[in-house]
Design brief:
35% of the residues lie in helices and 28% in strands. By secondary structure, the chain is α+β, with helices and mostly antiparallel strands. Keywords: Coiled coil, Ribonucleoprotein, Ribosomal protein, RNA-binding, rRNA-binding.
Length: 149
């Protein structure tokens, strides 16, 4: 029996896949748990329409991410840190601080999208990559850390 999966099922397939399963497995497990529906001409048309809508939505999200990437190119975030006699810094600039500074400029970015392995603890300019769309669109934030006066 052909079915359309409504959820990801391990060792069977991902959501929206059309797979062939035994009748008993479909009736007793997949349909009962609302994990799949029977494959018919009508359900295939609905699936195709949903896939088209999802593709359009994904294209729109990617376009927005590319526009945000262009916006980020022109922005430099300024931070200050206290330093000691030998030039060692006290404290660091975290991803949370970077996201807060961006939000003050009207730009919303999830802090988990910043590809910052550890907080910035050195003076100077650091370029922080940001995953704006599933690894396909990577933006860059310029962070300038200077010495506190």
């Amino acid at each position: 029996m052909k079915v359309i999966l409504l959820k990801d099922i391990r060792k069977l397939g991902k959501k929206d896949d059309v797979v062939e399963v035994s009748d008993g497995y479909a009736r007793n497990f997949l349909f009962k748990n609302k994990s799949a529906i029977a494959y018919t001409k009508g359900s295939a048309k609905v699936l195709d329409k949903q896939m088209e809508e999802r593709a359009e939505h994904e294209a729109e999200l990617k376009k927005e991410a590319e526009a945000l990437s262009e916006t980020l190119k022109g922005i430099t975030l300024e931070f200050t840190l206290s330093t000691g006699k030998n030039g060692a810094t006290f404290g660091s600039v975290s991803s949370k601080q970077i996201v807060e500074a961006l939000s003050k400029k009207g730009i919303r970015v999830d802090k988990r999208k910043l590809q910052l392995e550890q907080s910035i603890a050195s003076l100077g300019v650091t370029r922080v990559p940001v995953d704006l769309y599933r690894g396909q669109v990577i933006g860059e934030i310029v962070v300038h850390v200077s010495e506190k006066a």
